[in-house]
Structures are given as C-alpha cells and as structure tokens.
Amino acid sequence: MNITVKNVKLSNWIKEVADLCQPDNIHICNGSREEYDQMIETLLKSGIAIPLKTRPNSFLFRSDPSDVARVEDRTYISTSSKDEAGPTNNWIDPVELKKIMLDLYKGCMKGRTMYVIPFSMGPIGSPIAKIGIEISDSPYVVVNMHIMTRVSSRVLELLGTDGDFIPCLHSIGAPLAPGQKDSKWPCAPIEKKYISHFPEENLIWSYGSGYGGNALLGKKCLALRIASAMARREGWMAEHMLILRLTNPAGRQFHIAAAFPSACGKTNLAMMQPSIPGWKCECIGDDIAWMKIGPDGRLYAINPENGFFGVAPGTSYNTNPMAMDTLKENVIFTNCALTDDGDVWWEGMDGDEPKHAIDWKGRDWTPESTEEAAHANARFTAPASQCPVICKDWEKQEGVPIDIFIFGGRRTNVVPLVYEAYNWDHGVFLGATAASETTAANIGAVGNLRRDPFAMKPFCGYNMGDYFRHWIEMGKRLGNKAPKIFYVNWFRKSSEGKFLWPGFSDNSRVLKWICERVDGKANAKKTSIGLLPDEKNIDLNGLNISPENMKELMNINPDEWKAEIPDIEKHFATFGKRLPEELREQLKEFKERLR
Q1: Is 132's pLDDT higher than 80?
Q2: Which of the residues are catalytic?
Q3: How far is residue 319's CA from residue 347's CA, in Å, rounded to a whole number?
Q4: Which of 182, 189, 188, 212 shows the shortest CA–CA distance to 47?
Q5: pTM score, two decimals?
C-alpha cells in the first residue's frame, strides 16, 4: 500500500475485501494528476483506451454490448422488510442477497489490482458533503471517479482514525487466471450483474458491470439511493435535480432546482444561454442536488458531483453550446463513434455526418449503415470546472439558497407551458404526480404515461410514500421560507404534431416569469390546476410565435384533466397506507376544482 490508512474501520474493511476478492495488488488512490495519467497509461497499454487526436487528454472507450446502461431490473434496495423498500423498488432480503453476492465476490479480483478510492460527494469539508470509499478492480472506474467526484488523500485525512464513510464495493466480476488475456471490456453476464443497496447500513455492493452508474458508485447509488435514505433520517434532501443561478438585469440572483425525467432537457436547461437581453444563467449542477436547512431557515443546495456524465447523442451547438464547449479537452467518451481524423462523433452532432467512421462496436460505419454509429446512451465524462458558464459559487461550502423548485415532463398535450402551485402541499402533489410520455409512437393515451414522481422513481432508496411524507414535513419545517414550486412543459404540440414552444434558450422567458412571480412583480390567474401567467406576462419580445400557438400553450381543457384522475388514483393506490393524508386531500381538492 502506497498510503497509510489511519481510519480503523477503513483499514479493517480493506483487509476484509482483499481476503474475500483476492486481488494481486492493492492501490490506494490519492486523486493526483500523476495517478490519473498512470491509470490512463494502463488503459492505453491494454488497448481499452483510444486516444483522440483532436481533443487534448481525451480518450474513447467501447464497452461490451451487454454492458451499456444502468440495469434497473438488476438494481436492488435491500431492507429488512419489503414494505420499507416500497412498490417502486426491486427488493431482496438482505441476508439472501448478501449470501448470493459474497459467493460471487470470492476470488473475483484474481489477476487484477484492487483500487481503494477515497472520495467526497460535495466540496471536501462542506457541512452538506459526505465521504465515500469505493473499492473497485477497474482502472476505468478510477479515472471516471477522478472526474465525477473529489478523489483525494485529503479525504483520508478528514476521516482521521474514527470518521465515518459510506463503503462502496465494486467488481467487474472477471477474475484472470495466470497468463489469461484480458478482454477489451471485462464484465459478467447479465444474470450475474447485481447493483445492490443496503440503506439501513449505508452500504453499496455492485458486481458484474463496468459501466456508468452501475460502477461509478458515487453517482446514482450513493448520491441518490443511499443519500435519499440518509436525508430522510437526518432531515435534509437528496434530489435528482439540476441547480442553476439566474441573474436579472438589476443583478438580483435566483437559485433554481429543477427535476425532470430523462429525455426532458435537464442538462440543456442547466447550461442554458438566455435569449432575453440582460439575463444571465450559470450552472451549479446538471443532475443532483443535496439540500439542508441553513442557520437562516432557508434551504441551501450543493451539487455533490464534480463532473458531468452526460448523454452524447443529441448534444450539439444548437441544443447545448455550453456542453459542447466543455468537451474540448480532458474528457472520457464512452460508446461514441470514432472518425477517420481521430475525433468522436454521434448522431445529432453539428455539421455533416462522416463519410466513414468506426462505430461503438468497433465496426466500419457509413451513412448507409443500418445501425447508428454511436450507442443511444453514449456518454461523456467531463470536469464541471471546464463548463464556460459554471457558477463561481458552485463549490461554495455552505451551498446556495434555493428560491424555486421546478418539476416537469414531456407531454404533447394536456399540460400547459407553465403554472405555479398554490402552496407547498399542492407543489408536492405536482411533484408526486409528475408524468412523462414514454415514446412518440403512443402519444395521447393516459395509459402510455409513465408517472415518475419528482423524477426519482428509479432513485429513491426507500418507500416512496414515506418520501412524499418527507417532502411534506420539509415544507412544515421551512414554513414561509420554503421555495415556490412550479411545473413546466416545453413539449406541447399542435394538432399537426409540431412543437408549439421553441424551447432551449427561449425557456429563459418562462424562467423570467417564474422569477418575477417570486419577486411579486408578475400577475397570475387562478385555474383548476394552479396559477397561470396572464396572457401578456411571458416576455415574447423578439420571438416569432403566433397568438394562436400561445393560446394553445396555455390552454387548460377540464375534460383532459378529468381523464388524468383515474391514473393518478391508481398511482397513489400503490403506496397504500404510506401515502400522506395531505396528498389524498390535494387530490380531493383538485377534483373539486375541476367540477
């Protein structure tokens, strides 16, 4: 070992894992640039990393076709009772699950190095941050964790001899016999993949996958599934939310935390460039927010991550110029295509598609090919500090004060462009019933909606009925200092199937109204679903949009909303007695307003 470990619990755990997994070597990470370069060198020698000629210190990786995304059906919340995990999670009894996994872990690191990765989620030493230790046998995981978290020997110093940490054990599940040649992307078959969470012990065990959130255990596993359970116990919030700062022409700052299901433009909004003059948007985080009540009674948020793990396809200078500028150097790309001039490419990127490329499976690709060049879930891992609009306060130890919560989803009809909750409990009702359409092929029918409460359905580490209760209780604690809550829908379409709202930078026009509502400077009218802008309240200066389209964007059809009620009732029924009475009351009031 190249670093002395003073923490007794950690020292014992390292020995225990080494005895179980039987690695050839142990390396304790220090988070230095030298270490990162050394890991990259290892990956280059093994042929796993492909250097990119056009982007300094950037590399392309190709995963095994069986290991390309988070595997929700192999992801488990293991609590002492099934009811504690709730209806939205896969549950296995902890005793049974640990037995299965301990058998898999036996000798699983033979022929490999065991990396001990000390990391902080959030700025090191922040009162909102948490310390994790990931043990992994994958150098790919080490380099990604370097970018996505704060890996540092300072974390070990902060732990001291008796500090607490969240243990995260990961193995790709591919031991090597003496002399055996390693595969280009070692992993276990799907039936042996397990991404397991033990929230009652703050423990994460992952086996068999080397990809993304299955292997970078600081991401969804710690920052949401385990953190949400910790937050409930400790009285704070761990949410699947972007954080941005919007500054108006007078210099007044607003901090917004927003939750959207996947494919609803979260990263685009986090890095938005406002189209209205004098307004400025800065990114604090694009995916996760941890929030605690500060000494002044307000809610303060940090981004616990250190980088962006973004979906590449569809990212372009048209959709997200700031993301594109973030990706010029020091980036890890996974499952993108490789062009003949040594750059990455993906569908939806600016410019002409290449005449020839090597696709994500390592095969020749041309525009005539029947399969796409980049995998639909191809990713980039990039340091947040490289984003041109990263906020100077993004690493502020105490976080930033949240003024506004926004929920949203992808709806082609029914839901207007923007509306405001009547009060906190009504806002929780909006978050708890948030829904998004799954595919463009089955738009319209209520049965094809996917309810994704607070965009947390795959990430809540305990019974979601109790999660709703936690939101209600936080509102009581915050009182009149609670953020205002809004709901948006950028995706409404005309009867011809065309988007009515331009989206992207023009979403700043909606945010402007939201901020003016918080400041008490904009009017709203009461409706059956919430408070809507007056027709002239959205700033449309310089925007070519017809009055008919604006009218349709703000239209509320009571019959369409009544048609939603059976689905909401069915959704709420899944939580049984754990559904807070306040939400039953909100549904009752909603029905009465629609009469």
Answers
A1: yes
A2: 264
A3: 13
A4: 182
A5: 0.97
pLDDT at 2: 60
Residue 55: which of 326, 354, 378, 310 has the closest Cα? 326
What pLDDT does residue 424 have? 98
Average pLDDT over residues 194-210: 98
pLDDT at 318: 94
Helices within 87-177 (DSSP H only): 94-105, 139-148, 153-159
- The answer to whether 43 and 184 have CB atoms below 8 angstroms apart is no
pLDDT at position 146 over 60: yes
The DSSP element (H or E) to which 551 belongs, if any, is helix 547-553
Distance, CA of 469 to CA of 175 (rounded, Å): 45
CA distance 111 to 540: 63
Residues 6+ apart with CB under 8 A from 173: 104, 108, 187, 188, 192, 193, 207, 208
- Measure CA 348 to chain center: 21
Walk me through the domains of the chain, giving residue ranges and CATH numbers: 8-47+70-236 (3.40.449.10), 307-386 (2.170.8.10), 403-594 (3.90.228.20)
534 confidence band (pLDDT: 50, 70, 90): confident
Give the three-class secondary structure for 391: coil
